[in-house]
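Q: what does this look like with heme C bound?
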Amino acid sequence: MKIKHLAPSLLFVAAMPMAHAQATSPMQLQRAYEATAGGPGQADKGQVFFTGRHGGEWSCASCHGQRPTGAGRHAVTGKSLEPLAPAFNPKAFTDERRVEKWFRRNCKDVVQRECSPAEKADVLAWLQTLR
Ligand code: HEC
């Protein structure tokens, strides 16, 4: 990777402690996760992660759907969820605090721990391929 491409993401990471309910974008978030993970997000791994059960009862897809381009349906409450794929939901991944809150909560439900930056980068890479 060229320094030219790396610089913006490093700047973004440096600015992160100041960013609370900060406006962001799916691409900006992905770059930040990649910078922390030390490598690019992989869409195919993201799909496997998202649809897999990880030894528990639920996958991400249990609530968000196998292909989260349409409304999801909460596995417990039946509540309708906004599509996760940014091409189908302009609000998805635009509020950093909201994204982190849901990642934390949902990852604990599915993988019994928080998702790593690499896993988040993979999932975001995949979601952005959905058109
Ligand atoms: C038990 C149901 C459930 C499961 C399982 C689940 N989620 Fe969610 N998720 C939600 C709900 C509810 C919201 C809030 C969405 C809304 O209000 O429309 C949400 C929102 C999100 C958001 C915030 C998107 C945004 O910018 O608004 C992300 C990111 C997310 N989920 C990722 C995941 C990932 C990754 C997994 C698997 C590790 C997962 N979720 C599994 C219920 C679930």
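Residues 48 and 110 are 13 Å apart (CA to CA). The radius of gyration is 15 Å.
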